[in-house]
Design a protein that fits this description.
Helix content is 45%, strand content 25%. By secondary structure, the chain is an alpha+beta fold. The strands form four sheets. It has a seven-stranded antiparallel sheet. The protein is globular.
Amino acid sequence: MIRRYSPFVMLFDLGKLLRNSLVFVFYLYVLKTGSESSFIKYGRMVFLVVVGLMFFSTIYKWFTHKYKLDNQAFHLYKGLFNKSERTIPFSKIQNIHHRTSFIHRIFHLTSVRFETAMTDEDANIKFEVISQTEAERIEAHLKSADQEIEDQNHEFDDSEVEVKHPESNRTIHFQATKKDILKASFSSLSFLVLIPLIGSFYYKINEVFHVEGTAQGFFEKLISSWWIMTIIVIVLVIASATFGVVRTYLKYGKYEISSDSNLIYITRGVIDETAFSISKEKVQAIEITQSLMKRLLGLAEVKLTSAGNLRSEEDTLEVNTLYPFLPVNKAYKMVSEILPSYAITQEMIRLPKKSLWARLLRPSWLWIIATGVLYYFKPTILDVEQAWMVLSTILLICIVVSRWLNFNHTRYVINDQFIQFKEGALTTSLFVSKREKVIEVKVTRNLIQKMLGLASIGTINRGRPVHHSGVNDVPVELANTLFKWYMKRNNEIHVE
């Protein structure tokens, strides 16, 4: 049965139109009220015409955009006179992403995005506004269709779909506690966000009301009293810490990671709730990263590389992250629980000492170009005429230290059907993949590596975009081992 999208789509689109129009309304009808300028006069006319067209476009879109589900695919229709149909098979769907904002919850609605591995611009299926019941009905339909393909025992009729709520067979692997939220707020340095926000707010207020002169006199009075400044500093520290904790709680509060036999489920958020699922069989690789702050706090971030499009459009956070602030031991344990087909080897092989020489002898174009610029301008800093030499030396030391740290952190191992790489200087990254998930391997050698018997190896996994990983300056014998290891993939791959 062909269905229209929820009528609340029009309400949400009109809300976006109103929000995007506020700036123009404020400028044309508040700041320029009473203006007789031709530019303002015609600007108001153009604004009203554009808003009117977008208003009718929203209504037209709701009347002409429809969808239908059959036993095998989504069918999406649009157009009134020039109609078009787009079909997306259920087999192409990789992940399901839910987002329920505060406004959604008021009307008992949600948004759902079904993500595929296809590269077309319209490859994903988006329901920006949909009722909770309809979202559950569609997901039940997908599960029933998948079961039908597996069993091949009975026919499935779309008109007879019923939303069922069987007992959950999910295993909960992680739930964020108050202690986890506190660690996350310090690890993410979110408590430092308040000060730039205050500065940005002051700058915008000053642009409109020109308060800089008054504020400067007020600031001079404050710094003349040490006890007032002490109180202000204490208040700012407390306010920043509170702001960071609250901000982190709103973003990562109610964070839960669970799984069943086929899918990984992640939910998070207090005001804006986000929930998504990732198919286990579509996981191409695992990546465990640690920044310097996370290493000090004993935390790690676990990311899953999937063939689907895993980047959230509403948030900068990649939705393939299990949790950005997991205790290290918990992270390794959780990976083995959620993905028992993956094995992480704790003992890995270090690079030989000649690899350090290969890295130190490799030219640094950053240092060469920076030194050339400094030599040309020869800036004087703190009355030091040869400051350019000092800056060049400091930059060179930083590059050498960074390469030395990267050398010490780099590890690799090929273990049966698994391959692992670890690299990084201040931030380290551990990459793990199965042989059947690797679509390409490569080996390169530069002049210095050939002289020292070294090589650079790399792997490519499916994803959007494709995921590249590898290690530089490994013994050349490992390159030969890598090719032999990869050739065994022919016995493991299967056509999806």
